[in-house]
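for ur thesis appendix - Lipoprotein. copy paste whatever u need, i formatted it the way the template wanted (i think)
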Amino acid sequence: MKQHKMTRLAVALAALGLSFGLMGCGNDQSAKRASATIKDLSSMAVGKLGGKGKAAPPVDPRVSIETTMREIPGVPLQFVMQEKTSAYAVTSIYGQNGSVITWVGADRKTTSLDRGMLTATRGFGNDLMSVEDGGAVRLITTKQAGTVTKTYRFLDGLERTTRLALTCAITPGETQSVTSGEISTSARIMRETCQTATGEFSFTNTYWIDAGGRMVQSVQWASAEIGQLVFRRLR
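the 3d part is after this line
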């Protein structure tokens, strides 16, 4: 990994207390990332890259969060950050189909989540088209251990759909307090470690589930192009 990317990630994520295990970096780093705590957003500063590789001045997401919460009262809101680019958005509900809710930000990128589990993205490029979760969301939201087979489908640069099958082991972890926007709760950490049949590729998703089975925050892999997304419910 190039040094400038490491610097960008440090600026974007150090204040969050996150240690991301990037794709292909090995189980040790994935374990560190999965066990990290996401700290309060008030301490976070996100740096974005400007033209010709020069860093733009750090941007504090509290401004976007506070403005959006003030201007759109009483509706569900969710903070989303893309690890690769440090880009973030405060998103609101765009639509719902059964248990799947689609969230949209000002940049018009959307993420679709089934009870908090990522199932699709649009507008990022090389998007995640769909996920067959094999029962993973049921185990995670009910805080149960188990093993499932998940199938991810992506759209490549030639507008072709590609498929990735993974075996995912789900394990309950410790309980942590979560304070985010108007949400203040205790949540159980659920870890989902997925790998291909050959074991050559793996990643770990981490979910925080409250007493009611609601996913209040998560770190989820979306695709090779998109990387990992951080989700945090604000309301």
